[in-house]
Structure formats: C-alpha cells, structure tokens
Amino acid sequence: MKITKIKGTLDFTGNEAVKYRYIEKTCTNIAKKFGFSEIITPIIEQTDCFVRATGEASDIVQKEMYTFLDRGERSITLRPEETACVMRHFVENKKYANPGLTKYYYFGPMFRYERPQAGRYRQFTQLGVECYGNENPLMDADIINMAWQMLSSIGVDNLKICINTIGGKESRAKYQVALKEYFADKLDELCPDCKVRYQKNPLRMLDCKVDSGLEIMANAPKIKDYLEDCDKEYFDTILTYLDALGLKYEISERMVRGLDYYTNDVFEIIYDNPKSQLNGLAVCAGGRYNDMGAEFDGPTIQAIGFAMGVERLMAIMDEAENTDYLEQNDSITVITLGQNAKLAGVKLTNYLRKNNLHAEIDYAANSLKPQFKLSERMNARYIIIIGEDEIANQEMTIKDTVLKTETKIKCSELNKYFNIEGSIDYAY
Ligand code: ATP
Ligand code: MG
Q1: pLDDT tens-digit profile of 80-116?
Q2: In what order do the strands lie in the sheet with 75-78?
Q3: How far apart are CA 114 and CA 146, in angstroms?
Q4: pLDDT one-digit tens code per residue, 308-324
Q5: Whole-angstrom distance, CA of residue 248 vs CA of residue 141
Q6: Architecture in CATH of 332-417
Q7: Which of 2, 368, 375, 379 is exposed most, by the fewest CB atoms within 10 A?
Q8: CA 41 – CA 128 distance, rounded (Å)
Q9: Helix or strand or coil: residue 279?
C-alpha cells in the first residue's frame, strides 16, 4: 500500500513554505516590538496539563486530544494548544516571583483530532502570545491592537474583531444559574453534547457548533444582564481604549470561547467574506484567563493571550491572491550559449556563490528555452548570459528583471555590479 500523509495534515514546499515562514517572521517581529520574547516548550506534555487547564467539559478534552500511553504507562498528550504549556512552565519555575510583566510569544504545531475541512486540520500551527502580570484594561486593549497589527502587516483583509466579556467568578456563577433555569425544560431540543454541557458547564452550550442556529439559543439569557459592576466597568474601559486606538469591533453577546479557562474579556478576529468558503472562521482567538494559574497549584496569575491559526491565514492570503510574501529575490541564473561556454558558466556560478550570492546554472541544457525556464522557476532577479564571443572579450550580458534593463559589462566590472568586495577582478 502506498504511504500517504496522515489525513488532516499538510506538507509545505516552495512558495507555500516561503509563505509560512513569512507569516512567522512578520508577526513575531511585531511581538518583539511589543516586548515579547520567544518561549519554546515540548510538543508532548502530561495529559493532565490540558485536562486541568482546558477543562473537562471542553471540546478539546472531550474529543480532540491525541493521547497515548508511553512505554512507561504514562498518559501523554500531543499539545492541542499552547496556553496551558506556557502556564505549566511559568508555575513550575515559579516565574511569578519575578516583578513586572512576563511576555512570551510562541510559534509551532498543535494537534487536534477534528474533522478535517477547509481551514481545519489535525496538525496545524499556532502563533500566539501570553502576557502575565497585573491586569489592566489598557493592556487587554493593546494585546488586541497587537493582534490587529500582525494581521495588517501580512496584508490580510476582510477581518472583524468580535469581543465579549464572560465576567469574573461571581458574574459567571449568577449567569450559570440563569442558564440552567432557562434550559431546564428545553434539553430535549438540544444535541447530546449540550446535554452533557448542561450538567458540567452550561456556558459551554452557547459555544455549540450544532445548536448555534436554534431560536432557543438566540433567546438564552445574556451575560451582560448578570455582570458585577466591576466586571462591567473593566469591559467598558477596554472598549473605550479600543475606540481610542482606532480599532473597530463588534460586541458578540453570545461568544464564550471554547475553553474553560477564560475570565472577563474574550475576543475573536473573524474572516468576514460571504463569498468565501472560509467565511466566518476565526483567524485569531483569545482573552483573559486569571484562574488558570490555580489549576497548576500556583497562585492567582493574571493572564491574557491569544493564538492565531497560521494555515487559515495562508488560505486567506491565497484567496486574496496576496503575494506580499514573495520577498525580493536577488538570485542569479547563469545562461550559456554554445557547448564551450558551459565550463566558463560553472566557474562564474561558483565565483558568485563564493561571494554569498545565490546563483544557479543548468548543467545540461545548451539551448535557451530550458535555461530560461530554470530562471522562471527560481524567480531570479538577474540573468547573466555568456556565449563564446563574450568569453573571448572578457564580457557578459546582465538582465535585471526588476529594473528591466539589459547591460553588457566587462568582467572587471562584475564586482562593482553585485557589490562584491574584493580587490581581484573576475576573469574567465
Ligand atoms: P474553532 O472555533 O474554529 O474550532 P477554536 O476556538 O477551537 O476555533 P482556539 O483553540 O482558540 O480555536 O485556537 C486559536 C486559533 O487557532 C483559531 O482561531 C484558529 O485560527 C486556529 N485553529 C484552531 N483549531 C484549528 C484547526 N483544527 N485547524 C487549523 N486552525 C485551527
Ligand atoms: Mg475548535
């Protein structure tokens, strides 16, 4: 039987790989400007890391984790998300003892056993940030601002920010009671998962992908009617700051987010393009989660973060035919005319490579067509053409495909043309 890649996974080569790294580089550069430094954690963790942080009733723990027993009978899980891992690290190393804010960003693969479809994979990549330290609505607004800047910098359009608050513990407790009362006589109309959620964590019901269209969902009590004054004030202040930062947003009253660890503000940045099959998918999601530290037996750690789905961003860039990621490519193709020019061409190619330039030559072809094809495949900026006449005269023709120029130069001018530092002039 043929060996194929596993369902729901992707290979990247060529421009796809370039795009992937472009997103990483562009977004992490912005994170660095906001004072975030990189954290790299293992891909495998104790299963409990996610059960405790993400919550027993979350979709991730209920049905999406890749969990197995290792040879020592320990339950191991391939990380489905990174927020729990970063908190595990922070508490394990008592980093909460450090003063001030701790700001991490990460980039790497996550694993979830989901039904593969457009923008949904079993191995996918998240780029995310976590910020620990005294909560402040200005910080929350600035984190959303940073996410927006990242998305703008890679040139992704048609996005909208959706935000909500699920309040602190007291607000949520009152809201849970209201939800339980409301749904008590409506359980028959709900999906089997929601019946479980009703028992374990009724807030989760609002996040259900199966029941989301039902009228009873639309009419369910809204968190805003159960917020404590302090939670309401915190949320309103974030909105004021978002306004001041010039960010447009929509309040999504039923957004609770799929993970149990959130407190107060939650947000998503959604792809809003009705013409696309990716319409409505979240490219970024996050919020505040002040209660997670305690799940790791640490103190209360005030925390906020978000994660972006890199493959979703790639798919959206493809749809928009966004080619910003194709950086200026300064590579060179050496094209030779006539059999006797090939060896001179290889020598020239080597000289360029020794001087840190990316140069390629077609070793076999003597006719022009395949040699120009190589140049197209490389997306080369420069094409150097040499024939027997050029070699005899110590000359070469250089085409610059960006400036659209064609110049014949002496070999002695080559160093100057490519800014090669060297006192010895090139000669065939
Ligand atoms: P969704 O509601 O789409 O399932 P989620 O709430 O499960 O998303 P999070 O756990 O918050 O997503 O992850 C943050 C981001 O990671 C998402 O907004 C999305 O861009 C990306 N993401 C999540 N799951 C997948 C997946 N299976 N494939 C690709 N990207 C994903
Ligand atoms: Mg999900």
Answers
A1: 999 999 999 999 999 999 999 999 999 999 999 999 9
A2: 44-46, 75-78, 66-69
A3: 29
A4: 999 999 999 999 888 88
A5: 12
A6: 3-Layer(aba) Sandwich (3.40)
A7: 2
A8: 13
A9: coil
Three-state SS letters, 340-379:
CHHHHHHHHHHHHHHCCCCEEECCCCCCHHHHHHHHHHHC
Distance CA 347, CA 333 (A): 13
The residue written with tokens 């010895």 in the block is: 424
Query: Domain limits of the chain?
Result: 14-168+228-319, 172-220, 332-417
Q: What is the distance in angstroms between the CA of the first residue and the CA of the last residue of the chain?
A: 53
CATH superfamily entry for domain 14-168+228-319 = Bira Bifunctional Protein; Domain 2 (3.30.930.10)
How far, CA to CA in Å, does 404 sit from each of 247, 383, 401?
Answer: 41, 11, 5
Ligand 1, atom 21, residue with closest C-alpha: 309
**Structure tokens given for 272:** 């809003």
Our mutation pick for probing the ligand 1 site, out of 78, 83, 110, 114, counting the most ligand atoms within 8 A of Cβ, is 110
φ and ψ at 308, to 5 degrees?
-115, 145
The verdict on the CB of residue 204 being under 6 Å from ligand 1 is no
Name the 3-class secondary structure at 283: strand
Per residue, what are the HEC states of 68-83?
Answer: EECCCCCEEEECCCCH
Cα separation, 86 vs 103, in Å, equals: 11
Task: Scan for tokens 């390629």, then name that residue.
Answer: 360
Q: What is the DSSP letter of 64?
A: I
Residue of minimum CA distance from atom 28 in ligand 1: 120
CB atoms within 10 A of CB 155: 14
Of ligand 1's listed atoms, the one at least distance from the Cα of 81 is 10
Q: Per the structure block, which two tokens stand in for 193?
A: 């998962």
Kindly state the tokens that stand for 286: 């996050």
C-alpha neighbours within 13 Å on the C-beta side of residue 316: 29
Specify the 3-state DSSP secondary structure of 85. Answer: helix
Q: Do the beta carbons of residue 200 and residue 56 sit within 8 Å?
A: yes
Residue range 169-222, pLDDT digits in tens: 899 999 999 999 999 999 999 999 899 889 888 888 888 888 888 899 989 999
Q: Is the beta carbon of 142 within 6 A of some atom in ligand 1? A: no
Ligand 1 near 282 CB (within 6 A): yes
> Is ligand 1 within 6 A of the CB of residue 120?
yes
Residue nearest to atom 7 of ligand 1 (CA): 258
Q: Is the CB of 116 under 6 A from ligand 1?
A: no
